[in-house]
Amino acid sequence: MKVPESLPQVDLGHHSLAIDEILVDVVRRGLAMPLPEGLKEEARGFGRCKRTVDMDIGMKNFIQNGPRVPAVFLHE
Question: What is this structure's pTM?
């Protein structure tokens, strides 16, 4: 699938900029691959997210406060 060179800027509100950057990279790479390779890229992307401070913050916030309380991310 053809992937555009640039994407429009989007206000993410209270979401993690670090996680968003990883997700955009994974989607861009994955769309250019056959499905089995794209799924492996997705798994690697999850690993990248797991190593961020923001994933830890988000998971702890979700467990402690539920889905409706925004987390305060460090974007790292």
Answer: 0.79
